[in-house]
Amino acid sequence: MTATGTPRATTAVASGPLLDEDAGRLVRPFTVCGGRTRPAARLDLLSVVTATGRRIRRRLGPEHAQVLRVCQGPASVAEIAAHVGLPAAVTKVLLSDLLDSGAVTVSTPASPGRFVTDPALLRAVLHGLRQLV
Q1: Which residues contact 131 (CB under 8 A, 6 or more apart)?
Q2: Backbone phi and psi for residue 105, each to the nearest 5 degrees, phi listed first
Q3: CA atoms of 80 and 86, how far apart (whole Å)
Q4: From CA 94, how far away is CA 30, in angstroms rounded?
Q5: pLDDT recorded at residue 44
Q6: Residue 34, by phi and psi: left (phi above 0), alpha (psi -120 to 50) or beta?
Q7: CA-CA distance, 76 to 67, in Å (whole number)?
Q8: How far apart (Å, rounded) are the C-alpha atoms in residues 72 and 49?
Q9: d(CA 9, CA 1)
Q10: pLDDT (0 to 100) of residue 57
Q11: 34, exposed or middle or buried, with CB in 10 Å at 0-12, 13-18, 19+?
Q12: What integer pLDDT is reported at residue 14 of this predicted model?
């Protein structure tokens, strides 16, 4: 309610979810992802997501469209979650939906254990570190 007693209007933010000035987000994160708590695809916070430009054949929610707009250029899962204002877990579920529909591609960072490290490079790094001390 405003000071004059009239109900305060609910506003739709152009790139965001429905908000109410007093109540905040009207659509809770749990409902955004249909109650799902785990994405179908394995996504890391550092995974880089990019939109493919492919047309989506199934109907997705406004939050999916919001996430897809952020993915027009390469962006990490963490960046996307920050831009859309949703928890990372919810963002991962939405991205998984978009990945399943072919709307985005995901590049997952390689885990450190998969690299074969050159001993000469390690010695050079160690030598450089010792020079700093």
Answers
A1: none
A2: -120, 155
A3: 9
A4: 12
A5: 87
A6: left
A7: 11
A8: 9
A9: 9
A10: 78
A11: exposed
A12: 38
Predicted pLDDT at 12:
37
Beta strand 18-20 with 11-12: parallel, antiparallel or unpaired? antiparallel
Q: Which of 79, 69, 63 is nearest to 104 (CA)?
A: 69
Residue spans of the chain under pLDDT 70? 1-40, 110-116
- Measured in whole angstroms, how far is the alpha carbon of residue 43 from the centre of its chain? 10
The tokens of 115 are what? Answer: 């690299």
Partners of residue 107 on adjacent β-strands: 48
pTM, to two decimals = 0.60
- The residue behind tokens 């965001």 is 16
* 40/38 Cα distance (integer angstroms): 7
Q: What are the angstrom distances between the C-alpha of 14 and each of 18, 60, 76? A: 9, 17, 22
Contact 77, 49 (CB under 8 A): yes
